[in-house]
Amino acid sequence: MSASPVTGSNVTASPDPARQLLRHTLATIAYRGGKALRGSPDQFGSFHIGDKTRTPAQILAHMGDLFDWALSIAQGEQAWHDSTPLSWNAEVDRFFSALEKFDDYLASSEPLHGSAEGLFQGPVADALSHIGQIAMLRRLAGSPILGENYFKADIAAGSVGLNQAVPRREFE
User: Which InterPro entries match (predicted)?
Assistant: First the structure.
């Protein structure tokens, strides 16, 4: 073990840096996603801006599907499902549950059957785009989230639940 130059804690170097970067990216998704989802208005899940756009609940259901798909790829049994959106709160729970299951698999010693690069460029990067959509819809719904210096955010691999660290530097 060696001391981490950032935190000073003892950490074991990962045998697979790409897998560790994926885990940090999932923690980033949880942090940014949690910020976009927390404190949303009661009817936000059904907010609609046009006939050819998804509601926030539809976007969030798709994000849950993305992480179910990512896990199936990682396990070597690729499967895609288009889920019908649940209630907003149930969909929030489902999203974080799917994120946690995928992160748990990445943290395990189980083999990664899909490439880390493919997982990043497919489901993971897609989820980052959708978090931006939800943040934009929050603003359009009259309930914007505060901007933040995300470089200073306390984000760590394995932290993939709804409850995240308090923002260090927000601004309007």
Answer: DinB/YfiT-like
